[in-house]
Amino acid sequence: VLIRLIRLEIHRLLRDRQLSAALVAFAAALLLSGVAALLDVRDSAWTKATLEAQERQRWLGQGIKDPHSAAHYSIYAFKPTVPLQALDPGIVPFVGEAVWLEAHVQNDLLFRPQQETNAFERMGLVDPAGLFTRFGSLAVLLLAFAAAARERQLGTLALGIACGRRRTYLPAKAASVTAVGALALVGPLILTGAISLATGQHGADDVVRLLVWMTSALAYVGVMAMIAVCLCILARSVQMAFAALLLVWVALVLAAPPAASAVSAWARPLPSFQQMKLRLAREAPAYWTPEAGAEQITQVLRRYGATRESEVTINLRGAQLDVAERHAQEVFDREIGGFYDRVDAQDDAYARLGWLSPAVAFDVISAAAAGTDFAHHRQFIDFAERYRRDLVNRMNADLIPHPAVGGRLHTNDISLWSQIPAFDYEPPMLLTAMGAGATAVIALVAWLMAGAVLIALTARVVRP
Amino acid sequence: MTPGISSRTLFRYECERVARSPVVWAVLGLVLVAGIWGALTTARLHRHQADDIERMARDEAKWYEDIHIRAARYATPMSADGKSPASNDGRRPDPSDHGRTSSNELPYWQDPTDAAGFSRYFLRRFAAKRHLPLSILAVGQSDLQPFAVPLRLETLFGGDRVYDFEPPRALATGSFDLSFVLVFVLPLCLGGAAAAVGAHERDFGILLFVASQPINPRRWWLLRLAALAAVLVPGVALCVALALLVAGAPVRDAWMDTIAAAGLVSAHACLWLAIAGWCLARGHGTVPTAATVAAVWLALTAGLPLAATIATRASAEAPSPVADVNELRRTTDAVRANADAVVARRLRAHIGRAAESVDPRELDYSTRLILITEEMEERLAAQEQRRQDHAARSARLAHIVSWLSPQEAFHTALSDLAGTGVARHQAFLRAVREFQLALRQFMRPYVFAKIQSLAPRSCPLCPGRLNFVHYDEIPRFAMRDHPASSRIVAAIRSATWLLVLALAIIVLGVGQARSWSVTS
Q1: Alpha-carbon gap, residue A97 to B229, rounded angstroms
Q2: What sign does the dihedral A56-A57-A60-A63 (CA atoms) show?
Q3: Can you tell me the ipTM of this complex?
Q4: Shortest alpha-carbon distance between residue A58 and chain B (Å)
Q5: How many helices (H) and strands (E) does chain A have?
């Protein structure tokens, strides 16, 4: 009976020409933004892959030089563009895409795409997931309004309940709204994701990611459908139903994510980034003072069991660089690592607010599944920093046993450069980088269950 | 209604009805609470940024204090063995005081009294974009664009590419600031309230009774709209002023900005009331009116910027900063491969024939870097021009979009009035570049004078070279903003545009409200 009712409701919804036209318009907008995102992702992935190869060639072909100069020359590392970025770019437009892995400093990632754009482009919300989360939910509410708001006025509600269909009447409404919403809204996005996966060489993890994204998108549509159907059925008039739906949308979808973001910033404030930069400049300067230089020499001499510089036959400058570099690495771990830990904690706080809004929960899961949240970004930062340290430490290690002879500095060539492997970053598997997404999954499941309970309760208490 | 009822009486009656409506008070309450929250959020962000600027200024002052101390120390002659400066107190100094015990001369990169060493390793200046009095009005781009930029002479085309790290997730979700409440939430609230109050008679089936009274539908509609505006517009403006006050904005000191903001918000509220009123004039009930307002809101808030974004990307490909890295690296390699020739050529351009006696290979890295930077900027000028052309094109498009979309116009006007908009940031970046050029202009003569100087060192036994000690004369960055009056004029211009649109919609509504539409 439930299946028959669902089928009937779907037919009824699709027969409404205006509604169908509105849904087609929504689907077309999503598809259009998906196509635009696909082209962006493809171009970006190609550019980065090409540049990465050229950087490798540059590194290998830098000729004969002082290894420390090579450590300064180093490479630019590019954060790979993941295929599901076409679905949800997450934080990608707001973080850098390339980092110069030079000696002495852990540079920030450069070139934030949004920093180069205009204000209206930020307002444009061009990404498919943003459109789906914010305005797709509005389409779901519209569907629910068409499906259930006039039932009381038309007397269909009384008929449905009187026919002994109290238990199936509301679930059928919610399921039909979910099904039509999923078809019109999730369908184009899944198509976008599938095309993105099909156009490159991607592994099983990416397919799993797409499936997780799809499941959570369906759950989001389902939650919104259940809430909307209940409100429409409980409202005493069409006006009340409309007002309630609009209010729910403004509160749960439009205002909740930025509001939750503000709450998480109050709850888990970040230390000042500039203050951290000043501490880095103070504690791990790229160029040391004479006092710091003397301290480094003392350390080097202690390491080699000597008391005077003339007692050691090493490249003192190389050893000094090594001491300074390893000290700086400790400072970076403490300061920069600590700062990013706080960002992670704030993201966790935001994800926990998924209990207050399904849009917040879905927002977190979507970016995590697409591989475009901060947890994934940090994996790249950490990988790049490990690579930088390996490269710089190796250059210093080559320098230390080779003191300058007759005023001529030690140099090396491709035999040393080629010992540094190519920068080959692989994004992590979803399960290992879910980050705050796990909390949000629980929240969305809770919303789904709460929606089901709401449907059951409404079905029990509703009076025609 | 009695025959001959005056407009004033009817208007007073309508005002009382609007003022008694719980929906109206709910809307004003929501705007006030959300507005205060939004304003506090922005105030917090901007307070932190202002603290950072103060901290950076203190740190810089401390840095130069230390340099002064070092300069004085390095100006003290040492004994011939290079180990014991003839200090005034006659005590033997700690060897770590100078770091090098084999010679009395410091490496140039540790010597702040050497012009070249100072220019590369000690010169510290930053450029800051301080917040305007009413910055709390809108976060704008202040969470995304850097508010303080460190300056180095060798950075290409301006300040270092830095930014203050705001949590990227928060940037992606957008800020819950006062402008978010006013641009995104307020139109829907006003539309809902106007629909509920305005279509009351129709929804409850008593419009026929009203229509039977001796009153012109046009006058009735206009007075109802005027009553809605008379209560809601000042109410919203007052909520904004209160929110600013609670969040600590200096509304009294910046009273002109505050009035401009209130005027802007009032014009925006008038526009959305006019849109809702137009639906009511067409005889729509609560639901169709609110639905139409929501649809218009959707089109103007999301549709138009989305279309403009896609059009921008399709019409002209934006220069890719990532792809520019390739050009930068290639140019760097090309310049470095001929570095000696480049340095010699550039040096000749600066000091003329005196350069012929200088072996470029003998010059220190800092001096060479000054000349190499010039060459790099010349070779990468086309790339920079492409970037600037794109920014200019983008600004022109944004200007057009802001005229097409009242939402964008309002948002831009709020950000510009707050001083957090794109235009002010672009002006800041231009000022940063000018300041960098001024810094180069200041330092170069000292660096080149050192090369040309045939005079012996002023203090041969001192660790420092002592050819640069003018630390207090180094230029400081000061952003010259446009006067407040220009911001206010811009806000008035935007408010006028919004009012013209509102008026046009009201005229359309007057045309629609010729007769009573008593059937739904």
Answers
A1: 49
A2: negative
A3: 0.88
A4: 9
A5: 21, 2
